[in-house]
Amino acid sequence: MSLVNDILNHNNEFVENQEYKQYLTTKFPDKKMVVLTCMDTRLVELLPKAMNLSNGDAKIIKNAGAILSHPFGSIMRSIIVAVYALKADEVVVVGHYDCGMTGLNSDQVLNLAKERGISTDVIDTLQHSGIDLAGWLTGFDHVQDGVVKSVNIIRNHPLLPKNLPVHGMIINPETGKLDLVEDGYAAVLAE
C-alpha cells in the first residue's frame, strides 16, 4: 500500500467520524498574527504548543529556514495577504536551533540534485539565464542571522505599514523554549 492510499483511507475515516468538527474555525486568525517558520518536522506540533496556538489562532507559513529570500516572492505575498485581507496585526518570524539551513551551500544542494538525475546542462542553463542559484540555495551561518534578515525584509517592506510589529524568535526544537531576538514592539516605538 502506498503512502497516498494510507492518507486517503485515514481521511475517509476522519470525515466519516466527523473528527473535523473539533477544528472548525474561520479563515481569520483569532490572535491576529501571522507566523513565518521553518518546515522542520520537529516543529509541526511543538511550535504551536510552545506559542500557545490552537487551530484558527494564527496564519502559519512554512519554508526552509524561515528565510524570506525575495521581498516580492510568494512568502512575502502571503504575509501581505494575511495582514490586509485576513486582518493579522503582528508578524512573528520563528527560526530554530539545529536548522538544516545552517551552513547549507548551493554546491551541496546542486551535487545532490545531480545524484538524483538533474543534468549539468540544466544547471548551467539556469545559471546562464541569470538565475542566482548560489544565492537562492544558500542558507545562513547562524540561525539568528536568518531570522534577523527575514524580520528586516518584512519590517522594511514598502507595502506594509511602519506600525506593524514584526518579531523574531528562535525555538529550541527539543524543549520548545523560545528566545526573543527581535522585539517588534520596540522597533515600532523607535520609528
UniProtKB/TrEMBL annotation:
Entries under SUPFAM superfamilies matching the protein: beta-carbonic anhydrase, cab
PANTHER family assigned: CARBON DISULFIDE HYDROLASE (PTHR43175:SF3), CARBONIC ANHYDRASE (PTHR43175)
Broad EC category: lyase
CDD domains, alphabetized: beta_CA_cladeD (cd03379)
Protein's organism: Paenibacillus hexagrammi
Catalytic activities: hydrogencarbonate + H(+) = CO2 + H2O
Record-linked Pfam families: Pro_CA
The family this protein is said to belong to: Belongs to the beta-class carbonic anhydrase family.
EC number per UniProt: 4.2.1.1
Cofactors demanded by this protein: Zn(2+)
Protein name (Swiss-Prot/TrEMBL): carbonic anhydrase
InterPro entries (UniProt xref): Carbonic_anhydrase (IPR001765), Carbonic_anhydrase_sf (IPR036874)
Alphabetized UniProt keyword annotations: Metal-binding, Zinc
